[in-house]
Amino acid sequence: SFTIHCKSGAKRRYITRHLQAALLVIISFRSLAPSHCRYVFNTLFKHRPDARFTEPHNHRKRHCLIRIGNLGNIYFFVNPTPPLSLSFSFPNPVMVRCLPFFISLAAATNLYATHYDGNIYSLSLDDENSLSVTSSLKSCGDGPSWLTFDSSTRTMYCSDHAGNASMNGLLTSYSVDRNGRLTELAHTVDVGAAVHSVIYGGKHGREKYLAVAHYGGSALSTFALPLRSDKKPLEVFRYKMSQPGIKPRQDSPHPHQVILDPTGGFILVPDLGADQVRVYAIDLHSGHLNVCPSLNYTAGSGPRHGLFWKSNPSDSVTMLYTVSELSGHFHAFVVSYLSSGCLAFKETQSFVPYPGGKLPAAGTPAELRMAGNSLYASIRFDQGFAPNDSMSTMACSSNGTVSFSQITSAYGTIPRTFAINKKGTLVAIGDQASSNVAIVKRDPRGGTLGDLVANLQVGQPGQASNSSSGLSSIIWEEDVEFVEQSSHACVSAICMFACLLFAICWFVCYRLSIV
Fold first, then answer.
1. β-sheet bridge partners, residue 220
2. Model pTM?
3. Which GO MF terms does the UniProt record name (predicted)?
């Protein structure tokens, strides 16, 4: 963190314009050094013959100075404690106070990866696409399997893969600081073998709850947030089957994910073992879940992951897309919201998202994600880019129809998990067996996946034959797994309108200040 002091003369316009650019450059560095100040000077001010760069030091603090003739000085100080503080000496106070609202601060991006070695790894991707491990934390039980980040409270929730239907695991919460460091807040006993979680909201979006899917525990559990040590689950739904399924991995129910619908009113749980997606209506007053009729699949399908899609918020058509691990198929359903308070589904498509419509003998789809009008499924064990596995890209039309587009390299083996950044420009692929995080370019317009921009080994490699080894999940810090209720959405819209009005006022004040 640092403080900037800017002393200007009458020509404030030049300083204002270049100060914004200076902030964009300097904040991209995780720590400030004179070399960084020199980079700002060379990038923005070297063309001016009256610009000078100096590196004065004293016994209290290190700072550097950019002097711009008679326009003024820009000081960059090292400040040992956050948060970032900015102070300017422009005569117009309105312009000064408003300036930070209209400066986009480019900074190193934090990611987090869980590994079955028992660690949560904090990663940093800088503006030059250099990926590094900044810290690791031995926590979240014996086998951290999934992370869910609540950006509104900067709280991370970690699920533990250890345990089974009769042996418990752990659920742990952490505070997340701006440098990506995690500090444990609380942990409590949960059903064993957790693999996925999602945050959902109560009445008016004021209460929050966490729903956790337990693959080996054959259960779904929910917790009221914030999590407190030794807090008991709000509810636990334990699943049983009258007889095993037709595939070897269908000996018992295996819920693999928790999906929140676009309204925030329903939770879906794909159950690989039972060949169904379980459906629950959320009681917005209490956070409790009410059982609805399930969506059933053909025997041996093994639904694993899914997501909802709407072409726009006002569109009446809602789609559910899923991938089935055992059959290798992608499924599309039209979703109807019934007056009974439950959901109905009509299947519109089923195909294998792979060239020729057929997977290699061992190939299986794993995770499903969407950005814009493109869908992506990670494909494990296909070795489509030997020795690496693949990523499948699909295109979604305006009416919800999906078509296969291409496969690209996963840049590692067994891509169990992947995540797309909010800008839609990068995809982080978590390859389980090779235990690496590969950052791949994404075209936000066409949706195609491009070149590898960063690749990092995280922890020790796993074994293809051992599903409880290697990298288990990857998440961008900016990920938000919480859908607010309609009342909160209205508040957000009002805030956006207020910000727009504020921007107009700032622009008018700024123009008047330079006349």
1. 213, 237
2. 0.76
3. 6-phosphogluconolactonase activity
